[in-house]
Design a protein that fits this description.
This protein has 290 residues and is α/β, with parallel strands linked by helices. It has twelve helices and ten strands. An eight-stranded parallel beta barrel has the order 1-2-3-4-5-6-7-8, surrounded by seven helices. It is elongated and about 85 Å long. The two termini are 46 Å apart. Belongs to the PanB family.
Length: 290
Amino acid sequence: METSKALNILQLNKMKREGLPISMITAYDYPSARLAEEAGIDIILVGDSVGNVLSNYNSTLPVTIDDMVYHTRSVVRGAEHTFIVADMPFMTYHVSSEEALTNVRRLMQEGHAHAVKLEGGMEICDTVKRIVQSGVPLLGHIGLTPQSVHQIGGYFIQGKNSQAAERLLNDARALEQAGAFAIVLELVTEEVAKSITREVSIPVIGIGAGRYCDGQVLVYHDMLQYSAPYREKKFVKTYSDIGTLIRDSIGQYVKDVKDRSFPGEEHVFKADENVVERLYGNAKVKGGTL
């Protein structure tokens, strides 16, 4: 596959204006990123969902800035020609703008991210402005915000009534005015997501937000059922069942080891005859001569 330069925020805005859908995938490591780039993905998000997906945490809260730097660096190495966005994890941008900028610096300089993502609406816009003014592209995230899961009481669909819809619309407008280059909408009713997408001039990328956003994002491990046990999600389309394939393949390997059919003749290395004679002489072994 021919390589090309990574997209930038000007090109992403042009895609919105021209009605060209934006594809995004959430990935956490080198091989996943490499495969996503080879498949032609537009954006890779290194999500703090790495805690749920790879470590089986029950929320994203335990994920640290060190975790995000490590995984972002791995993804960038795998997808050198793709636009990479890194999540700012829990409480890394809430204490002060100075602390937020310090953590942004780590994701950009150590992780080599092209942009960062923050969860929240109007309440974080002052921080958004400071980060954008420092020269960092920033992706907003509203709707279901996993870092606030204990505050909102669980993983619920957002925007189901007029008050909630108005709040989401105001959050989207505020993030646009603060300088965000795009917004992720997570688990938002389709009607509200459609309204927000039409209202703001920046791209809106949905996950569980219906058909009318400017783009879509799914988690690598979800769309491939690469987990055990896999939990069905209404908003996810399964493209391959890699989990079952992996489990069956490892099971076959275990069987082959147990019945000694692996390694076979084609998997072993042979020494020169003089080495064999020096080690074993004319000794016989079970199954024939060495």
